[in-house]
């Protein structure tokens, strides 16, 4: 945005020259803008319109007001899914941030064989969520995974059956999700840590400040933008979480580990509840905006303010 | 060129015997979701019969029923429909018919007297506004109980005939170290077991009334309470790893003797045969315990897109004819593990379980259908699945609460 404006301000005798860079930039943006407007905003509006109809298998434009929303809010499974989204979101983002940061700090402290550890932590990222889900489904299956293995070693009362318990299954999602994404967070944090001015470390050593306090009170506040990036990246993953839950628990037992994205897809594709699914998608969008936008707004304003000084 | 005219001549010759005579090679693109070994082998029987009668078969397999149905609908809306496509009979197909997207095969059906040869409930489900909008190719049964004979002998129990007997037997099996019920804990499998209990405790009239009327009073009735109590009593007989398990893994537990019983549709026979066991020998089949005899039918069917092209229409008519030919019905259904949709086809070449089903269906009072075929909208059957699965997997929900949740889920989704 800033560059064409500068170009336009350049003193020039030739009107065409001043006009051209703007024009080409706009031309180049047209395809991207069209795609964004049509595919993104256009389809959001369309989804909203559909959610006001009684469409089942096919879009039918008979409007029924907010009927679908009333049905949605009376649906126990929807609320389970929304609650799960909150639980999963907090645990997943929190887990990724905490463990990612700790791993990055450990590696940053000059651990031996750094390259090897970095690779190990990054490896899960190369797998799709489907594969991650299947692996953890086996690991957590009480009959053939961890529980069975430990019991065979002799600890016969050992229990790890979260995946088959309605009140615990949602936590298994966070375990598998964090396992997969923690490497990415670690890499981002590590890049941030490596950018910290070495003089800060030298100064703090001179002052005799303990290492943990340097991290806690000096380095971490300086890493604000990295935290912000990680938060945004991980929130996007949480909101669209679909494949992981399909592969890991199938939303079960019952619908105890269902997530809104799966609810929407299930209702649109398998249950021919186009209207209800669209209503769910729209409510999900509103929720995301409501939760994330204050944070983004806050961060961006701070950044802009910071740059101004 | 020469080859083409030969084919055309053959087609003309053969189709002379069929009502819809056409002069050209009739090409049918067939969209379906039968991608597993036994399914493909079964469909190949239809294909070879269709080709022998001069048709040209263009195969479009799409893995997964949901994906295939979505593809069929999308292509229809996009103006490039498949000539013939597999679809579930029920509310969704009616919606397509309502939008004028389907062709009917009344001519063939009338000539071949489908009205009297197919079970009346299936005739009703396959028709929309008096038109046949689908050709049902087979009948699967959903209220089967497969059991491992050696496991039953080990625990010294007989095949139970009623649910109280079943619960007694299951206790003995558990004591003998056998998992009483091999269950795949996915909502649709839990629903199949629930329906067996519903039929077994409530009886066939009750079952039919529940799903055909979805009546609030019936759902709140004492009989329904008993159904939920019996269903809840089965919870301890399932092993811990059940949630999420696929149905064929559960079938293999029964084949190996790790589990004693499985409640599943007769497609499990395919898995039993693949495991090297002839159904009815070491792995036995019986109807799930019930107070009266009934067979919960579900069908595989093909529907026909509305296409304004004479060749395509002729191909559709021919396909409908081929699919219900007695020879094709026998060859197809033996491979598929189902029984013929036509009840007048000789049963003697089928396995013991299928023969039992065919014999049972000769009495029309035993005819029942699965939820979808009663015309229950998929929204309601989805809500039914949700609430049954939620009840089954909940550790602390009482049968009363389960029943109430079931009733509410249906009334919200209606």
Automatic annotation (TrEMBL), chain A:
PANTHER family for the chain: ABC TRANSPORTER PERMEASE PROTEIN
Protein name as catalogued: Sugar ABC transporter permease
ABC transmembrane type-1 domain residues: 82-297
SUPFAM superfamilies assigned: MetI-like
Example GO biological process: transmembrane transport
Keyword tags: Cell membrane, Membrane, Transmembrane, Transmembrane helix, Transport
Any one annotated GO CC term: plasma membrane
Membrane disposition: Multi-pass membrane protein
Transmembrane residue ranges: 27-49, 85-107, 119-139, 170-193, 214-238, 274-298
